[in-house]
Write a structure and sequence with these properties.
Layout lengths: L1 H11 L1 H21 L6 E6 L2 H11 L13 E7 L3 H13 L1 E2 L5 E2 L14 E6 L18 E7 H13 L9 H41 L9 H8 L5 H8 L5 E3 L6 H7 L5 H23 L6 E3 L2 H13 L3 H13 L3 H15 L5
Parallel strand pairs: 2-6, 7-8
Antiparallel strand pairs: 1-2, 3-5, 4-5, 5-6
Helix pairs in contact: 1-3, 5-6, 6-7, 10-11, 11-12, 12-13
Length: 355
């Protein structure tokens, strides 16, 4: 009889659960966005009536009312990295009232050879400081379950569900060893992804500090270091000088396409790029004078400075029109126009004795 009463209460409160679901999901999304946390997924569901019936058939003796069932509304946050679970849980603790007695950290309950259902389960309420509506006081009393787990933990749980198992202990003995081996691989991968991410983050911070300090010869040229170097606007002086030839407006385009070009030109450190700029800056400006003479161009790209530096270097080093053609192909893709452009610039360069 009490199970029927619970089902009746469930039906009566369905609209409240829907309202709570919308509110909580919106608050979680806003929190994640505000803290610049990108997650693999934010899922929510309200337990279906058939699912609730099944639960009551199995464990109905445990529940005296609907309020005793804490997962009617279930929300799951799936992170990319396992260490982000702790970061998000700290934010959740600030947002909602946590029912610590019924919350559980399943990450600490597993045997050493189990990956299993590793996840953090919080039973939460919406505090009145976050939301209060006198016409719906139940919204501050109803509980919901919030699960937090990593992507690989989620993969494992879904795989078990697909095979029809609820926990490791249900796996037939002949398969338990293989499942344990797979669990170990997934857990190791989960840890290593987190470790690698942390080391990359530390490396980028170190690079930014080195670049900011001007120790350019200590900074090996790679995608991260080049991007940090570009934040200093190292070619802006030359770009503005070239734009002034026609009193042109300068718009800032990306110089990242030049990263691979500079590698091909033999640059190994950021210091090499600085020396390249300083050595060929004046010749690059003289070339621009010829290029812009009589054109009337009133809009120029910031990249014109670095492009002209590369052109001058290629011609000075004797790579000729073939080298220029390769430069333009690397920057703009294959085209018959690249060779024509290389020839025209080569002819211009002869007038200022670049070749």
């Amino acid at each position: 009889m009490h199970c029927e009463m619970i089902l009746d209460e469930y039906r009566e409160k369905m609209s409240l659960y829907e309202r709570m679901r919308t509110f909580v999901v919106e608050k979680l999304r806003a929190c994640l966005d505000e803290n610049h946390i990108l997650v693999a997924g934010l899922e929510s569901r309200i337990k279906s009536e058939s699912s609730l019936v099944g639960k009551l058939e199995l464990k109905g003796y445990k529940y005296h009312s609907l309020d005793d069932i804490t997962d009617i509304l279930g929300i799951r946050i799936i992170t990319f990295y396992s260490n982000e679970v702790d970061i998000i849980s700290a934010l959740v603790e600030q947002m909602f009232d946590i029912d610590w007695e019924n919350s559980v950290d399943k990450r600490k309950m597993l045997e050493i050879d189990r990956f299993g259902y590793m996840s953090l389960h919080y039973i939460c309420r919406i505090p009145e400081t976050m939301y209060k509506n006198p016409s719906m006081p139940e919204l501050n009393q109803m509980r919901f379950e919030l699960q937090m787990r990593s992507s690989l933990q989620h993969v494992w749980a879904n795989m078990y569900h697909d095979m029809g198992y609820k926990s490791d202990v249900e796996v037939p003995l002949e398969y338990q060893r293989d499942m344990s081996r797979l669990a170990g691989m997934l857990e190791l991968a989960d840890e290593q992804f987190g470790r690698i991410r942390k080391e990359i983050t530390d490396y980028r911070r170190k690079v930014q500090a080195l670049v900011a300090s001007g120790n350019f010869d200590e900074v090996t040229l790679d995608g991260d270091t080049f991007r940090s170097f570009l934040e200093l606007k190292p070619f802006m002086r030359l770009a503005k000088k070239i734009a002034a030839i026609n009193q042109a407006e300068l718009f800032e385009d990306s110089l990242m396409p030049y990263y691979k070009v500079l590698l091909r030109l033999g640059m190994k450190t950021i210091g090499d790029i600085v020396r390249l700029r300083d050595e060929y800056e004046e010749a690059a400006y003289q070339l621009a004078l010829l290029q812009l003479a009589g054109t009337g161009l009133d809009i120029l790209a910031y990249s014109v400075a670095l492009q002209n530096i590369c052109i001058v270097y290629i011609l000075k080093k004797g790579f000729g029109e073939a080298g220029l053609t390769q430069l333009f192909t690397a920057l703009y893709g294959a085209s018959n126009y690249n060779a024509q452009r290389a020839h025209r610039i080569s002819e211009q360069a002869k007038k200022i004795n670049l070749i």
